[in-house]
Design goal:
- The chain has about 150 residues and is of the alpha+beta class.
- The chain folds into two domains: about 70 residues, OB fold (Dihydrolipoamide Acetyltransferase, E2P) (Beta Barrel), CATH 2.40.50; about 60 residues.
- About 40% of the residues lie in helices and about 25% in strands.
- It is built from three helices and five strands.
- Strands 1-2-3-5-4 form a five-stranded mixed barrel.
- Helix 2 runs antiparallel to helix 3.
Length: about 150
């Protein structure tokens, strides 16, 4: 998952609260993991995706899509913050326990044990977050310009 997608696309259909968006792949797609795995077309092809229509876009609008900020925050929390604090907290707790039981190196053991347990928890939560997350329309770049037949 790219940390910041920020891609532009055109709304081609509305499905309730969601919008179906046509994206043209660009140079940024070539560095994405999905493109490297062959899940999309990084060399100029078109991609069709669905995103939550939080900006109230209409058919024909050019929109900017991205990952919901709440999902992005939770991703950072589970990826970095929880494992880091579990390592530090486990090491600190192990240090004080090691002072009582006279077992040098117990802080290292408890720190890495806490890190491993927190990592399993975080990976499980990240997997669930990935299944439940969705893209959102962040803003409308330009609105649809209807051309009347009489103007042609």
């Amino acid at each position: 998952m790219k940390p910041e997608i920020a891609e532009n696309g055109m709304v081609i259909r509305l499905d309730g609260d969601n919008a179906v968006i046509m994206l043209e792949s660009n140079r940024a797609c070539k560095g994405c993991g999905a493109a490297k795995m062959g899940l999309c077309k990084p060399n100029g092809g078109l991609s069709i995706i669905s995103a939550k229509n939080s900006a109230g876009a209409h058919i024909g609008d050019i929109v900017k899509i991205g990952i919901d900020s709440n999902v992005r925050f939770k991703g950072y929390l589970f990826s970095f913050i929880i494992p880091l604090f579990s390592l530090l907290g486990g090491s600190l707790a192990g240090y004080f326990i090691a002072q009582k039981i006279f077992f040098p190196g117990f802080d290292v053991i408890t720190g890495f044990t806490a890190l491993i347990l927190a990592s399993f928890y975080s990976f499980k939560r990240l997997k669930a977050l990935d299944r439940s997350s969705y893209l959102v329309i962040e803003s409308r770049v330009s609105e649809c310009q209807s051309i009347r037949v009489s103007e042609l």
